[in-house]
Design goal:
Strand 4, helix 1 and strand 5 form a beta-alpha-beta unit. By secondary structure, this protein is mainly beta. The chain has eight helices and 45 strands.
Length: 694
């Protein structure tokens, strides 16, 4: 990282380096270029500069006058910036030596590689592209191009790499049109807003030997026949189509060097693997119709896997012990299936490099990690909504790199081990809806990286809620270094004592739920310091901000290119989209990480709180839900409540409140309906009234 986000780069800093030939300024988020001495001619002071990479910044069209003087450049990379407007743009005519360009101009007849991906270009690509007959690479992906498929593509018979992913082309595409591309190695097509008809008409034997094929969201109902003639493929992505029938075992048999196979979100069934060991490194069969048991030799046949996703199917039975033979596996996602039985010990001992294990929503049982394991690299463990029993096993102690743990909605008993607070640095900790008891370890929340905590009983789950209520007792621990917590759910335990003043320092909190405990004394006035009392806008939540994404950055480059295209870095985070349940408007709602950006809520209901409601509570001006019901609060509703203009749900019922309702509060549309009928009674009687905003 060279510069500050959005700041311009003073290019005169590089003028002393007259011999400079290659300059990489990627991922610096520069907002522009400046030179107080040479002005736009700044790049002309580097006469030997051949390669300039400005990708992944915040640059816009203002840099074009500077680039006009970079006449020595042979490679210019501007991908993933903020270039916009009509295409092509003026400003590149003087760079006659260019051979590889992220943007384009039609006069460069010797141009071999053209990459304008990940910008916001709109309209249609220029027809003059037809004159770039020496093009080997054309990447128009991730823009706003529209209209028919560019006719000039048929003139580019030397193409080896063609990507039209993620645009708005309205195209009926036939694979017969690929006949002219005898050198094609990489083909990437997808549709965002329309359906692509890709049926074969007639039979033909392709001359090309394709290595990478991506046909995402193409409305395919069958796997293209020409794939049966390909024997050297490295990546196949046919996700989000309408493929049906059994798993295409022949793809693996025909392509022993295949590394990535993504068939996600189709209608495939019946998984049968080849008889020989395969070198596949990434397999995604999620969201299909598989109902099989995994074969006993599953892990042996696919022993080279780095990532596997079988989630959202109906796989059943026990996991085979052969999964322990996947020695290089980094990420496993078997969530949302019907797997059952104990987890094989070979999984814990053989998969040493495992970083992500997601087994949520199955029927696994037995104790979680009862004995020591070899999972020293494990960072994310999701085993929620299963049938695990017993205490939290000591086997987890070896996995000190754990940052994300979800054990909620099981049948766990016993206490939370003290070592979970002493030896781990948590980001997300979810243990709700079990039968845990005892005190919360004092050090459990002593982490600057902690963002989401749920130890509540959450008895709204429709699976024997009577045996799933945590019974954690004692007082709420001191939150010493946990200012980053966004969600804290301790509802439905046996916590006692006053609300600790340290909670007021939770400057990033979005939802704080302490309901259904035995907390007493008064409400701390300093709760107004919570994030939804702040005047400035809060940043968007990112529960994975401190977690290393589980994707391979070194899975191979499948195409020789000046621009080093197609290094496979599949971002298979396996759906780490956490949700929490929070009671508002007399019902439980589920909020995922996106919805939490707009939700601020405080629930102190069903405790033993007393005294008056502090005037400062009304300073929670962005609160959407506030529930103080079923306590022993007295006095009047503070006038400051009239400042909570975003409030959607307010429950002060079953207290000892009296006096007038602050008038502006009754005027807000979301509050008027149920407050108005009670206004006169509430004003003078002092009864225990239900004041609920729906």
């Amino acid at each position: 990282m060279f510069g500050n986000s959005g700041h311009p780069l003073n290019f005169s800093l590089f003028h002393p380096f007259e011999e400079l030939q290659s300059l990489n300024l990627t991922f610096n988020w520069f907002g522009g270029l400046l030179d107080n001495h040479e002005g736009y001619k700044s790049l002309g002071k580097l006469p030997k500069l051949k390669i300039l990479d400005l990708s992944d910044n915040g640059l816009n069209n203002s840099i074009l006058p500077f680039l006009r003087f970079a006449t020595s450049l042979k490679t210019l990379i501007l991908g993933n910036n903020m270039m916009e407007g009509d295409f092509p743009m003026k400003g590149f005519e003087s760079m006659q030596k260019l051979k590889a360009l992220d943007l384009r101009i039609c006069k460069w007849k010797t141009l071999q590689e053209l990459d304008v991906s990940r910008n916001e270009f709109e309209g249609q690509p220029p027809l003059c592209f037809a004159g770039l007959t020496k093009l080997r690479v054309l990447d128009l992906s991730s823009n706003l191009f529209e209209g028919d498929l560019p006719a000039f593509i048929n003139s580019l018979k030397s193409l080896e790499y063609l990507s039209l992913l993620d645009n708005n082309f309205k195209v009926l595409f036939s694979f017969n049109s690929l006949k002219i591309f005898s050198k094609l190695k990489v083909l990437k097509l997808s549709s965002i807003s329309i359906k692509q008809q890709t049926e074969m008409r007639g039979s033909w034997l392709p001359e090309f030997k394709i290595r990478v094929l991506e046909l995402r969201d193409c409305n395919l109902e069958k796997i293209p026949d020409f794939l049966r003639y390909q024997k050297n493929m490295r990546l196949i992505d046919l996700s989000n189509n309408k493929l049906s029938g059994p798993f295409p075992t022949w793809i693996l048999e025909n392509n022993p060097r295949l590394e990535v196979l993504n068939l996600q979100n189709n209608a495939l069934h019946t998984l049968r693997l080849p008889s020989l060991v395969h070198n596949l490194r990434l397999l995604d069969l999620s969201a299909n119709n598989f109902e099989d048991r995994l074969s006993d030799d599953f892990g042996k046949i696919l022993s080279s896997l780095r990532q596997i996703n079988l989630s959202s199917n109906k796989f059943k039975g026990r996991l085979p012990t052969s999964v322990g033979e996947m020695k290089d596996i980094h990420a496993i996602n078997f969530a949302h299936n019907n797997f059952s039985g104990n987890l094989p010990r070979s999984l814990f001992m053989g998969c040493h490099f495992l970083k992500l294990l997601k087994l949520s929503h199955n029927r696994f049982d037995g104790q979680i990690f009862p004995a020591s394991t070899n999972l020293t690299w494990l960072g994310t463990l999701l085993v929620d909504n299963n049938m695990f029993t017993g205490t939290i096993g000591n086997g987890l102690r070896n996995s000190t790199m754990l940052r994300v743990l979800d054990m909620s909605s099981n049948f766990l008993t016993g206490t939370i081990p003290s070592w979970m607070g002493e030896e781990f640095v948590w980001s997300i900790l979810l243990m709700s809806n079990n039968s845990l008891e005892g005190t919360i370890p004092l050090t459990l929340f002593d982490s600057e990286t902690l963002e989401l905590v749920d130890l509540s009983r959450n008895n709204n789950v429709d699976r024997k809620p009577d045996v799933r209520n945590n019974e954690l007792s004692g007082s709420i621990p001191q939150f010493i270094n946990a200012s980053g917590i966004a969600v804290l759910l301790l509802r439905g335990n046996d916590l006692v004592g006053p609300i600790p003043r340290q909670l007021c320092s939770l400057s990033s909190i979005r939802i704080l739920d302490l309901a259904n405990n035995k907390l007493n004394e008064s409400i701390p006035p300093c709760l107004s310091n919570l994030s939804f009392g702040a005047a400035e806008d809060s940043e968007e939540l990112d529960f994975l901000s401190g977690i290393i994404p589980y994707m391979d950055g070194d899975m191979g480059t499948y195409f020789e290119s000046i621009l080093e295209l197609d290094q496979i870095t599949p971002d298979y985070m396996y759906g780490l989209n956490f949700s929490v349940e929070f009671s508002a408007k007399q019902r439980y709602d589920s909020y995922d990480s996106g919805a939490l950006d707009y939700m601020y809520g405080l629930d102190l209901s069903n405790n033993e709180l007393s005294g008056e409601i502090p005037e400062e509570v009304g300073d929670l001006v962005r609160a959407r839900s506030l529930n103080l019901s079923h306590n022993s609060l007295a006095g009047s509703i503070p006038e400051s409540f009239s400042k909570m203009k975003d409030i959607e749900s307010l429950d002060l019922s079953f207290n000892k409140l009296y006096g007038p309702i602050p008038f502006p509060l009754t005027a807000y549309g979301c509050c008027r309906f149920l407050l108005e009928p009670w206004r006169d009674i509430f004003h003078g009687s002092g009864w225990n009234l239900c004041v609920y905003v729906l």
